[in-house]
C-alpha cells in the first residue's frame, strides 16, 4: 500500500478514527478509576494497568485467533481427504 493510498484511507475515515481515539482514551480513564476505587491503587499504577491490560488482551486474542483459524483449516483439509 502506498503512502498516498494510506493517507486517502485516513482522510476517508477521519471521523471513525477520531471517535476510536476518544473511546480509547475514555476507556483508559474509566478503567483506571475502577482500579483505583476497587483496589486503592495510586493513579500511576491504575493507569498503567488500564493501558497494559488491553494490550496484553489484544496479543492474546491475536494468538488465539491464529490458533483457532489453523484448527479450522486443518479440519477442512482432513474432511476433504475422506
Number of helical segments with 4 or more residues: 3
Q: Helix amount, in percent?
A: over 70%
- The biggest beta sheet, please? none
Compressed to H and E, one letter per element, the order equals HHH
Briefly note the structural class of the backbone.
mainly alpha
Mean pLDDT over all positions: 88
Query: Domains counted in the coordinates: how many?
Result: 1
Radius of gyration, in Å, reads 20 Å
> pLDDT below 50 for ≥5 consecutive residues: which ranges?
none
Approximately how much beta-strand content do the residues carry? under 5%
Distance between the termini: 41 Å
Number of strands: 0
Short description:
With 82 residues, the chain is mainly alpha-helical. The protein contains three helices and no strands.
Keywords:
single chain, 82 residues, mainly alpha
Task: Report on this structure.
The protein has 82 residues and is mostly helical. The protein has one domain (3-80). Helix content is 90%, strand content 0%. It has 3 helices and no strands. It has helices at 3-12, 14-39, 43-80. The longest helix has 38 residues, at 43-80. The termini are far apart.
List the helices and strands and how they pair.
Blueprint: H1 3-12, H2 14-39, H3 43-80
Helix pairs in contact: 2-3
